[in-house]
């Protein structure tokens, strides 16, 4: 049963890191406000580069925020453009105004719930003693 405990601890730590990221995304999505941000840098692949770097940089109130973008971003946006972005003070994360929580957020919560139920069932069965 020591392997079970070790696996549970490792899984709990992994879920904690993923959940904290999605919790921040949830807060920005639900409590953030839409502001105009200046697009200051596009990914290098927009300029014909072969880099895998896929982040655009935005500036708002003297702070720089990075956002992962797709190749479709390149044909629609240019440096110097002001874009509507969802922002929450105190968070480094920005979202598009219509960006919704991904299914990963709910998947992480479901896995965590199932893990807790599994641990409780094992302890109640007495197999860990």
Spell out the blueprint of helices and strands.
Blueprint: H1 2-31, E1 33-41, E2 55-60, E3 63-68, H2 72-76, E4 82-87, H3 103-125
Antiparallel strand pairs: 1-2, 1-4, 2-3
Helix pairs in contact: 1-3
Task: Please provide a written account of the structure.
The protein has 129 residues and is an alpha+beta fold. It has one domain (2-8, 21-117). Helices cover 45% and strands 21% of the residues. It is built from 3 helices and 4 strands, in the order αβββαβα. It has helices at 2-31, 72-76, 103-125; strands at 33-41, 55-60, 63-68, 82-87. The protein has a 4-stranded antiparallel sheet with strand order 3-2-1-4. A hairpin with a 2-residue loop joins strand 2 and strand 3 (63-68). Helix 1 (2-31) runs antiparallel to helix 3 (103-125). The mean pLDDT is 83.
Beta fraction? 15-25%
Q: Helix share of residues?
A: 40-55%
DSSP strand count: 4
Structural class: alpha+beta
What does the overall shape look like? elongated
- Strand arrangement across the biggest beta sheet: 3-2-1-4
Rg, Cα atoms, Å: 20 Å
Overall mean pLDDT stands at 83
Distance between the termini: 9 Å
Biggest sheet record: 4 strands, antiparallel
Task: Report the total helices.
Answer: 3
- Uncertain ranges: none
Number of domains: 1
Secondary-structure element pattern, one letter each? HEEEHEH
């Amino acid at each position: 049963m020591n392997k079970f405990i070790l696996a549970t601890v490792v899984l709990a730590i992994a879920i904690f890191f993923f959940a904290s990221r999605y919790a921040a995304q949830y807060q920005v999505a639900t409590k953030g406000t839409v502001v105009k941000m200046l697009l200051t840098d596009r990914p290098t692949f927009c300029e014909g580069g072969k880099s895998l770097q896929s982040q655009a940089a935005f500036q708002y109130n003297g702070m720089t925020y990075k956002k992962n973008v797709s190749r479709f971003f390149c044909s629609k946006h240019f440096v110097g453009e002001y874009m509507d972005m969802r922002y929450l003070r105190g968070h480094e994360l920005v979202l598009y105004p219509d960006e919704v929580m991904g299914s990963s957020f709910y998947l992480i919560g479901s896995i965590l719930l199932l893990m807790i139920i599994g641990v409780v069932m094992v302890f109640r069965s007495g197999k860990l003693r």
